[in-house]
Amino acid sequence: QVQLVESGGGLVQAGGSLRLSCAASGRTFSSYAMGWFRQAPGKEREFVADIGRSGVMRGYSDSVKGRFTISRDNAKNTVYLQMNSLKPEDTAVYYCAQRKLEYHCSTYRCYQQRDIYNSWGQGTQVTVSS
């Protein structure tokens, strides 16, 4: 089973930027779509962004669209989340996950299903101060 390790979180002021990274073990990284989720205290884990195997197909939640960009480097087994114009409401633990092979998504309704992802990382804390 793939191991995922997130990094890049931290404390930033509102309006600032951070880039999160998620490094994957194993030799099959390029065979899987990848997703980013986040979980704020007292709230459910919610979908943030997803990227297809080649990096062409991408999906975002409405709350981050236009501010966040997901990308991947298959040669480095890494998926990224560039976060710009950060807001205090973006404060959460951010997780990356691998989308199961049998699920092919192109809509938010599909992406936001947590059950279609597995191999979750341990998360990285992002805190945005006002």
Report the radius of gyration as a whole number of Å.
14 Å
Mean pLDDT: 95
Helix coverage percent of residues?
A: under 10%
End-to-end separation in angstroms reads 39 Å
Beta-strand proportion: 35-45%
Helical stretch tally: 1
Tell me the major beta sheet. Answer: 7 strands, mixed
Oligomer: single chain
Total number of strands: 11
List the secondary-structure elements in sequence, H or E: EEEEEEEEEHEE
Write up what this structure looks like:
The model has no long low-confidence stretch (mean pLDDT 95). It is built from 1 helix and 11 strands. The protein has one helix spanning 108-111, and strands at residues 4-7, 10-13, 18-24, 34-39, 46-51, 58-60, 68-73, 78-83, 92-99, 117-118, 124-129. The strands form 2 sheets. Strands 2, 4, 5, 6, 9, 10 and 11 form a 7-stranded mixed sheet that branches. The relative contact order is 0.30. It has 130 residues and is mainly β. The protein is globular, with a radius of gyration of 14 Å.
